[in-house]
Amino acid sequence: MKAAILEKPGVIALCDVARPEPGPGEIRIRLEGCGVCASNLEPWAGQEWLTYPGEPGGLGHEGWGHVDALGEGVEGFEVGDRVAALSFRSFAEYDLAAAEMTIKLPGALEGRPFPGEPLGCAFNIFRRSDIRPGQTVAIIGIGFLGAVLTRLCSEAGARVIAISRREESLALARSYGAAETVPMDDHWAIIEEVKRLIGDAMCERVIEAVGKQWPLDLAGELTGFGGRLIVAGYHQDGPRQVNMQGWNWKGIDVINAHERDPAVQMQGLQEALDAVATGRLDPEPLYSHRFSLEQLGEALDATRDKPGNFVKALVMIA
Question: What residue spans of the chain are helical by DSSP H?
Fold first, then answer.
C-alpha cells in the first residue's frame, strides 16, 4: 500500500509498504480520507524530543473508510461496512483499528466525509464544560473545534463570545451561533471589550481552544469568580505557566478536557455521529480544503498558515 512517512521535519515521503494484516479483534479499513489535526504541526515543524522517521501513516488519526478485512473474533462488522475509527496510522491507503474503537456510518452520511476523532473530541469537551442555559461562554480560538463548540454551546442556550485572530474565523463563529465576536489582537483590549459586553463579573465558562500560552493566560482573565476554565487546546510544544494566584483568588474550576478513556472517547464519537446524521450539526462548511495523499505536506502547511478561509484540511485517499 501507499503510506505517507514523516522522514524528518518538513519532509513527507510517500512510500510503498506492506499492507497490515488485522490481528484478533482488529478491523482493516480501506481509507477514504483522513482529517489533518493541528497536533500534527509540532512533529511537522520538529521538536527535540521527537524521533524520525515516523511510522507509515503515523500522523493520521482522523480516518474513515470501508471495512476491508476482519481479524479473528470480530463481530458486528462486515466487509464493505462504511466506518470511522479511532486509529493512529491513517495517512495511508489502509489502517488497522480495534473493533471496539470503530463505529458504523449510517446511510444518511453516504458520500460525506466523517473525520470522527475531532468531532467526538468536540462533544466530549462540550460535556465536560457543563454548559447551561443563560450562561456566558467565551471560546478562544475559532478553528474547527472552536466552531463546533460555538454551535453546541449556543444551541444549549448559552451566550457565546467568540475570540479569534482572523476576521474569517469571527464570521464563521457568527454563522455557527456566536452572539458576539472579539478580535484576538490585544490582551487588555480583549478583557475590556468582554467587560463592556457583559460587565465585571466576566464569564461563567471559558473554553481555550488554541493550545498556546497567551490564550491560556487570557482564558484565566476572562473566567469569572467560581467559573470554569476548560482547556480544549492541545498544549504539546512545552511546559506552561499559569497565574495560580488569580486562579486561587477566583476559585475557578480548571478542566483538562482531553479524554484518554476509550469508552469516553467512543461516547463522544457516537454523540457526534448522531448529531451529524440527524442534521443537528452540519460540519461540511468546516472542511474548507482538500488534498490528495501525495499533497500531505501541502495540507500540513495550510493547517499551519491558514490561507484565506481555511478551517480544516482533509486528505482524500480513495
Answer: 41-45, 116-129, 144-155, 167-175, 187-198, 213-222, 244-250, 262-277, 296-305
